[in-house]
Predict the 3D structure of the following.
Amino acid sequence: MDAALELAGVAKSWGEFVLRDVSFRLPPGYITGLVGPNGAGKTTLVKIVLDLVRADTGQVRVFGQDHRSNGASLRSRIGFVHDRPTCYEHLPVEQLGSLVGSFYATWDEGAFRDLVREFELPRRRRVKALSRGMKVKLALALALSHGAELLVLDEPTTGLDPVFRRELLERLSGLISDGRTSVLFSTQILSDLERIADFVVILRQGEVQYEGVKDDLLDRWAVVRGGPEVTSELEGLPVRGQRQTRMGIEVLVEDVDAARRRFGERAVVERATLDDVFLLLGAERDGGRAS
Amino acid sequence: MSENALEIRGLCKGYPGFALKDVSFAIPRGYVMGLIGPNGAGKTTIVKLIMNLVSRGAGEVEIFGLDSLEHEAEVKSRIGFVYDEACFPLDATPRDLGRAIGPFYPGWSNERYRGLLGEFDLPESGKLKKLSHGMQMKLALALALSHDADLILMDEPTAGLDLGFRRELLDHLSAILQDEGKSVLFSTHVTSDLERIADFVTFINDGELVFTLPKDELRDEWGIVKGNGSLPEQLAGLPIRGVRRGPYGVEALVADAAAARERCGKDVVVDRATLDDVMVFMTRGENDVDAR
Amino acid sequence: MWTLVRKDLILDRRQVALNFVLYLVMGPVFLSLMSETPVKLIAAWAAIVGTMIPLSLLAREDKFHSARLTCSLPVTRDTVVASRFAGGWILALSGGLAIVAAIYGAHQAGLGNPVGEWSQALLVGFVTIGLILAVLFPFTMRFGFAGLIGFLVFTQVLGIVAFLSVVLVGGQGAVGAAIGGVAGALGALQGSFGPVGYDLFLLAAVVALNVASFLASRWIYRRREF
């Protein structure tokens, strides 16, 4: 089955900022987390996928088709969820259905109303008066009501409290259970991805640094923490990055068992969290980045 | 000399539609307290009450043993603050802010300020309006950390900051705390940050204190027990803090995971509870867990 | 308190400078538009414009929410009020004086034809500033810039109402009588105090009004929430 989204060799140069050779694939029916520092290019990438911005080179395929060849109908299958101000902020929630719905042939007003009720959104309140979390839920309701099969979420959980976040995450997990919907989820709160992502793409300095199954990372990768002597004992281990911190050295190793065998009690060896992978991957001890 | 950097007793404040009721907790000197709670729970109100930005309904706030109202100026000269919303004129530059604000604090060090600006990658002469939200937050932090404050008060300081910077900030805070016995009150939604540096955690919900506990206790003694429908019965008598039922089974947050393991043995899975779990279970879970 | 005044001047200096430049230009323009301008009118006008400088800074405070910053610094609310008062007077006085000086300079350079005693004008300017600041201060302490606008709108509305009442109801007599009454009372006072006494009386009244305004503002600001 076609990937929900596939990028190949996408590059874009925009003033100081550059995306170079970005390639990754969103397996259909799963949740893929997109991670990267601010300024790495995540938002630009999202805009390219939505055809708001044109890439300099490279191919973008959505549901197996070039994303510009059949733009309008493809876009109706994509839902973009974010909380930035939009042009209909002055409208009350319940009127949004007719407004947004008029853009989509596949709009289901009944589904929208149901979702508004399920998400407990105040129907008469104007969009600009909604809290941040409610705006995100509203965007999600809109996306789902026009039958979006690919949901692109841009930092949906930033600023949301943990309870709300958990709700949103549980909903997203529920969504993909039908196998029809795919989710691309860009965020800085990696514990959220640990909870629901199936795949992870790490973007840094305009390039994809890692693309793979989330559980692989969490099960097999490890962080070794100890004093400076650690660096002399890394021979033969699959090291993926290391960093000097105020408290010592941290080393990212792709094989937790091997690391444990090598260090035993002499250093702290723990399974890597996504935070660790994100911070350490490609890092060099002096703070530079492997390019 | 008081042992507590901050002590709050019976704090109350009423608003139309919301009330902070009888909140009490204390931060011993040299420790970090995380303040968690859903949006609208009252965390920002607590910070505003400490800084006297809003008036108290009732209760006492003591900072380094001094009442925060009677000794307002003295107490505030030792507090570094970072708020969740910007409060600086946007056509000012970081240098302007340093010059304008530094003189208020006896402990102000211009070298430290400029050093922090450099470390945080902030241009001394750029106008604030050109900085992203994250960078403005970093500036607020630089200011708060430049006058040797004994108590650092932060309300959602890391919202919108990327992970790399968040980690740097936490490392920086840890370093300050280790060397110098400073104390921190840190309100945030990014609980993974708290798991890293908090010594104590205070949970506020709906204007009330749910608990104030050492983080280690939460991490080591609390747990999520996962089982089937008979779980509440099995756990009767144990300190259950919330129960959630779902298509997958029943999960219960217990304050004594060891006892739960002993009681239920192999029938159940017991996992460590994260701060997120604690919040979710205690706000959305059922608390009335008589076996049905 | 002076640390606060200094802070405000540092952070607001661009706006203050802009205002000064603008008003200094407006001054000679104003002068050149009228022939035989009474010096007292010039002073009153300069005073009004001078007070706009500190009042315009309020808009910035509302926009940037900087009151939250100010009240988080190691100062009490009372100190903040004192610094606003001091700062407001300093800016208004220097603004007004600068405009008067610009106009005077323009006149020396041959522009315009002001008539009257400059020393009397200074008194008029001072009293005008004093009245405006005393009345507006408590409003702005409570409501910020929005309060200022509200107050100005209110006085406009009052003026419109008075005007309409005169036109519709023919209450010309009543409004005229009210204005005449105030003018008459002031004239009577002038008569009884003599010119110097009258001047001193005005000064004392302005000072008293400002003290009352200051105390009221302190009371208000202590209770303000941010």
Summary: The mean pLDDT of chain B is 89. DSSP finds eleven helices and 14 strands in chain B. The radius of gyration of chain B is 21 Å. Residues 163-180 of chain B form the longest helix (18 residues).
